[in-house]
Amino acid sequence: MTVKIRPYRKGGWEVDIMIRLDNGERYRERRKAPVELKSAALRWGQQRERHLLKHGPTPKTSTRTKAGAAPRSETKEVPTFAKFAPRFLEGHVYANRHKPTTVKNTKKKLRLHILPAFGGTRLHELAPEDIQLFKGQRKHLANSTVNKLLGQVKTMLKVAVRWRIIEAMPLEIEMLKLPMTAMEFYDFDEFEALVTAATRLDHRMLVMVLLGGEAGLRSGEIRGLEWSSINFRRRLLTVEQAEWEGHVTLPKHDKIRTVPMTERLTKALRKHRHSQGPRVLYEDDGEPLHVNSLANWLMKLCRQAKLKYRSPHKLRHTFCSHLAMRGAPARAIQELAGHGNLQTTQRYMHLSPAALERAIKLLELPSPGSPVGSGDMVETV
After folding, report:
1. The dihedral sign for the CA sequence 273, 276, 279, 285
2. Domain for residue 363, yes or no?
3. Do 232 and 318 belong to one domain?
4. Is the pTM of this model over 0.85?
5. Angle, CA of 359, 362 and 365, to the nearest 5°
C-alpha cells in the first residue's frame, strides 16, 4: 500500500495510490487532488487510500448490451465531496445569499479541512469511522471549531438529500461536547480605565469603546453605524446594518434592534459629530474603517491603560456581563444584544450575584399556606 504525490501536469498535485484488494488483486488509482497544498494532497490521498481499503473501488457501470437485449438502466453516480463542493457553493451558499463573512468561512472550511479529509469520498459512503478519524486529527482545535466543521459536513449532506443526490443521510454525525467556559470581559474598573485612556488618545476610540461596552454593538455594526441611525432627541440608537470588507449587510441573525443610549455615550456622539460622510467612524484619511482598525485602536488603549488585550468583541461581552452583574433580566439582555436565542444570553447570567441573592432569599419566606410564626419553636411547661 503506497500513496505518492507528484506535480500534476496542469498545476496542482497528482495522487498515485497503490493497494491490494481483499481478493488479492492489485489496484492502482491516479487522480488530481482537490486541494492546493502538497501536505493537504498527501492527507487527501491517505484518506482516499483508507476509503478504498474499506469500501473497495467503485464499480463502473456499462451501457453496452447484447444484440436484441434490452439496455440496462445506468446507475446514477453519486459525486464525491470534491465534485459536490462547487455545486453546494453555487446552489446553496450563493443562491441563498449568505453573508460575505459566511461565504468566506464556508470556503475556508472546505479548502483547509473538509476536502483534504473527505474530498475523494462519495457522499453516500461517508462512514462513522471517517468522522471519528476527522475529530482525532484535529485535537489541536477547540471543540467548538471542530463542531463548526462537522456542522458544515452535515449541511452538505442535508442539501444532497434535499436535491435527491443521495436517498438519505448516510450517518448520524455526533458533535463534541462543549465545556461551559466563562465569558471573558473587561471588569468595571478595567472598562473605566479604557474610557479614560480613550478620552486622552482619540475621541474616535472613546466612541468605539462606548458603542461596544455601553450599547453592545458588534465590530461590524460599529464600522457600519451611520448618523441616520441615531436619534439624539430620544437617545435611541438603531442597529440596522453591519459592514465587512466593503460589504454592507443586515446585523447578525438579520435582527434590527433599537438600543437606548447611556448619557455618556450620547454626550460622546454629540461631541464627535462631523461632516465627513454618513458613517460615524472613519480612518484618518477619511476612508471607511478597515477590518482591523478597531482591534488596532483597542491594542493602543490597552497598552495605555496597562491592561491585557482582549478583542473588540469582548467589549460586547462587557456590555452583557455588566448588565447581568447589575441584575438585568435575561430577556432584556437578549433584546438589547440581539442574541438569536436565550441560551446565548444565559451564558452571562452566572455573573449576576443579584439574581442568585434573590433566589436564596426565597428560602427565608414562610411556606405557602402557613400562618405567620408557625415555624417558631414553642416552649411547653
Report:
1. negative
2. no
3. yes
4. no
5. 170
Interval 133-175: pLDDT, tens = 999 999 999 999 999 999 999 999 999 999 999 989 999 999 9
Instruction: Report yes or no: 269 and 227 within 8 Å, Cβ to Cβ.
Output: no
What sign for the dihedral angle of Cα 324, 226, 224, 291?
negative
Q: Which domain holds residue 273?
A: 188-357
| 118 and 204 part of one domain | no
Co-location of 315 and 192 in the same domain: yes
- CA dist 149 and 115 (Å) reads 11
Q: Which of 135, 353, 273 is nearest to 281 (CA)?
A: 273
Task: Report pLDDT digits (tens) over 333-379.
Answer: 999 999 988 888 888 877 766 667 777 888 888 877 666 554 454 44
Give the C-alpha separation, 259 to 251, whole Å: 14
By the 8 A CB rule, do 337 and 317 touch?
no
Cα torsion for 131, 135, 141, 144, to the nearest 10°?
60
Residue 247 pairs with which residues in a beta bridge? 244
Residue 182 buriedness (CB in 10 A; 0-12 / 13-18 / 19+): exposed
For 202, half-sphere exposure in the C-beta direction (CA atoms, 13 angstrom radius) is 15
- Quick check: helix, strand or coil at residue 361? helix
For the record, the C-alpha cell of 42 comes out as: 498527501
CA–CA distance, 213 with 207 (Å, rounded to integer): 10
Assign 3-state DSSP to the chain and report helix, strand, coil percentages, each to 5: 50, 10, 40
Instruction: State which of 162, 179, 196 marks the end of a domain.
Output: 162
What is the phi-psi region of residue 355: left when phi exceeds 0, alpha when psi lies from -120 to 50, beta otherwise? alpha
Same domain membership, residue 343 and residue 221: yes
- How would you class 59 by CB atoms within 10 Å of its CB: exposed for 0-12, middle for 13-18, buried for 19 or more? exposed
Question: Do residues 9 and 123 both lie within one domain?
Answer: yes
Cα angle 280, 285, 288 (rounded to 5 degrees) comes to 40
What is the SS3 assignment for 25? coil
